[in-house]
Amino acid sequence: MYNHLLYLLYWILNSLVLYTAFALFPDWVVLGNARHLPVEAAIYAGFWLTFFVWCMWDFIFIRGVKLEPESLAISYFLFVNALGVWLVSRYAHLTGLGIANFGWAFLVGGVADLIQRFVWRTLLGRNRISA
User: What is d(CA 126, CA 131) in angstroms, rounded to the nearest whole number?
Assistant: First the structure.
């Protein structure tokens, strides 16, 4: 049950990050298309970003990978978030998220990673990510 609430919180936060990026940089981060309004696109794209990050999270833990030292965990999840934003934006006709280039996906993914790390440490009281 607790994991479901944490997933929902990450989904909401990722959606807010995407919407904020759209509001601040509308020329480089685009939300909305013929199917979705910007708010709907942020929610939908935020869901798929969260889904991708959690799948990659489960993948490394099922394999028993230890992300030690902390810098390895930071680098891994920064890459996963950036890749997730990029992949979700590649399906803009379905998700409604468009990104100008990978640099912007890296920036948005980095912000999402910082927020996720803050939530992980604050709410869960964990300093390290471990299996």
Answer: 12
Q: What is the largest CA-CA distance in the chain?
A: 45
Token representation of residue 86 = 């990029």
69-124 pLDDT, tens digit per residue, is 878 888 888 999 999 999 999 999 999 999 999 999 999 999 999 998 888 788 76
Residue 112 tokens read as 């999402």
CA quadruple 51, 79, 75, 9: dihedral positive or negative?
negative
Q: Is residue 94 part of a domain?
A: yes
Domain tally, the chain: 1
Q: Is residue 61 part of a domain?
A: yes
Residue 129 has pLDDT above 60, yes or no: no
Task: Tell whether pTM > 0.70.
Answer: yes
Amino acid (1-letter code) at residue 80: V
Element (H, E) at 65: none
Q: Provide the 3-class DSSP secondary structure of residue 30.
A: strand
And the tokens for 94?
A: 């379905």
